[in-house]
Write a structure and sequence with these properties.
This is Transmembrane protein. Belongs to the ElaB/YgaM/YqjD family. It comes from Halomonas beimenensis. It is found in: Cell inner membrane. By secondary structure, this protein is mainly α. It has one domain. It is built from 3 helices and no strands. Helix 1 runs antiparallel to helix 2 and helix 2 packs across helix 3. The protein is elongated. The two termini are 40 Å apart.
C-alpha cells in the first residue's frame, strides 16, 4: 500500500500558498480602492481575477485527483475483501456471525 502522507503534505502546502497569494491580491485590491486611481484599481482587479481563476482551476484539478485516488483505494480494498471472502469462505462466515452477535448484544442492552 502506498504512503500518501508526502502527497497530502505537498497538496496542503500548495493549497496554503494558493490561498495566501489570492488573499494578498484581494488585500491589495481592497487597499487600492482607498486610492481613487482608476487605472490602479483596474490593474489590481484584473490581477485578482486572474489569480482567482488560476487558484480555482488548481483546486478543481486537486479535487479531481483526490476523488480518483479515493475511488481507486476503495476499489482496491473492495477487491481485496472480495478475494479474501472467496479464498476463506468459512472464516468470513465466522467473522460475520461474530460481528452479528456483538451487534445483537449491543442492541439488546438498550
Amino acid at each position: 500500500m502506498a504512503d500518501h502522507a508526502p502527497h497530502t503534505r505537498d497538496t496542503t502546502r500548495q493549497l496554503k500558498e494558493d490561498l495566501q497569494h489570492l488573499s494578498q491580491t484581494v488585500e491589495e485590491l481592497v487597499n487600492a480602492t482607498a486610492d481613487d486611481s482608476r487605472h490602479n484599481i483596474k490593474e489590481l482587479r484584473e490581477r485578482a481575477e486572474r489569480r482567482l481563476n488560476e487558484t480555482r482551476a488548481r483546486l478543481e484539478a486537486r479535487g479531481e485527483r483526490a476523488y480518483q485516488e479515493a475511488r481507486d483505494t476503495v476499489t482496491h480494498q473492495a477487491d481485496a475483501c472480495d478475494r479474501y471472502v472467496h479464498d476463506h469462505p468459512w472464516t468470513s462466515i465466522g467473522i460475520g456471525a461474530a460481528v452479528g452477535v456483538v451487534v445483537g448484544m449491543l442492541i439488546g442492552r438498550r
